[in-house]
Design brief:
The chain has eight helices and 16 strands. By secondary structure, the chain is an alpha/beta fold. It has two domains: 2-145 and 278-287, Rossmann fold (3-Layer(aba) Sandwich); 147-267, Rossmann fold (3-Layer(aba) Sandwich).
């Protein structure tokens, strides 16, 4: 028997798609900032699916501790096995030690979740292993392709002459896949990091076209906004942003609203523009 445990409607939606019961978790924080989540139902002897998505503005370290506490409580309470759904993978950007003395953060965080009780982990389009369905780890990690949902959203945009664009080479394969699923033209721009910031180069052929810029993560929005500016400069009719994860650090969403005709990200992170739903893809992955 399977039961889904979670904090919000995202977990409840996955439960409905899996035809499973739903157990709510009460989110509590002590005055000194310590997390103390409480599971409000029975999970002994059951296959538990713990769903925890981070929300915009939530401290990622608090999120990790909260997740570890719930996983360990599920294990100590006798759950038969535990699937951990982490739509946006914490610390996925630090995939290896780039300089001497640095941690392999992505690997270490996954090890922590394994030790806390996770039998399997499900995430969505992890920056750690963007192109792999299964992430090599000490615990089985299924990397669900969130760009499938991005493509469905892109097709819903009212565009007369659409083109899918990737703002840099790192997202080229994903942009091409979205364009293929939509039946649209695709173009890839090139990003260059400089001391004064990010620069997007090229002369994209977008005269009179409706550009849909796609990426895996919008963090500060700098790359996407530079790419949008280049498209406008080259005659784009409209420019839209669509991404899997919307981190929107440093109030970047507010700045992006003045640059794009529309902005949408998936509900892997709870934000005001989480219009692309990935719960169905996650439920499909868990049910395989």
């Amino acid at each position: 028997m399977r039961v889904v445990v979670g904090f919000d409607s995202f977990g409840r939606e996955i439960a409905e798609r899996l035809s499973s019961g739903f157990v709510r978790i009460e989110r509590r924080v002590f005055p000194d900032g310590e997390a103390c989540p409480r599971i409000e139902g029975e999970t002994e002897g059951k296959h538990a699916v713990f769903v925890n998505r981070i929300s915009q503005g939530m401290n990622v370290n608090t999120y990790i501790i909260e997740s570890v506490l719930v996983l360990r409580t599920l294990r100590e309470s006798g759950a038969k096995s535990i699937d951990f759904v982490m739509p946006y993978m914490a610390y996925s950007r630090q995939a290896k030690a780039y300089r001497a003395g640095e941690p392999q953060s992505a690997k270490f965080v996954l090890d922590v979740f394994r030790d806390a009780g996770a039998s399997r982990i499900f995430t969505v389009s992890s920056h750690y292993e963007r192109d792999k369905e299964v992430i090599p780890s000490s615990v089985p990690v299924r990397n669900i392709n969130g760009f499938r949902a991005v493509a469905e959203y892109a097709k819903s945009i009212e565009a007369k002459n659409p083109v899918v664009a990737g703002p840099d080479l790192g997202v080229s394969s994903e942009a091409k896949r979205v364009a293929e699923l939509c039946g649209y033209e695709c173009l890839i721009m090139e990003k260059e990091r400089r001391a004064e910031g990010v620069e997007v180069k090229g002369s994209p052929d977008v005269e009179g076209k409706d550009v849909i810029l796609v990426d895996d993560i919008i963090s500060t929005g700098s790359t996407m906004m530079k790419a949008a500016g280049l498209c406008r400069k080259n005659g784009a009719r409209s420019v839209h942003a669509a991404a899997v994860h919307g981190v929107f650090a440093s109030r970047s969403l507010e700045r992006m609203r003045s640059v794009f005709d529309s902005i949408a990200v998936s509900d892997s992170i709870e934000t005001p523009v989480s219009l692309i739903r990935v719960s169905g893809l996650i439920a499909e992955g868990i049910g395989d």
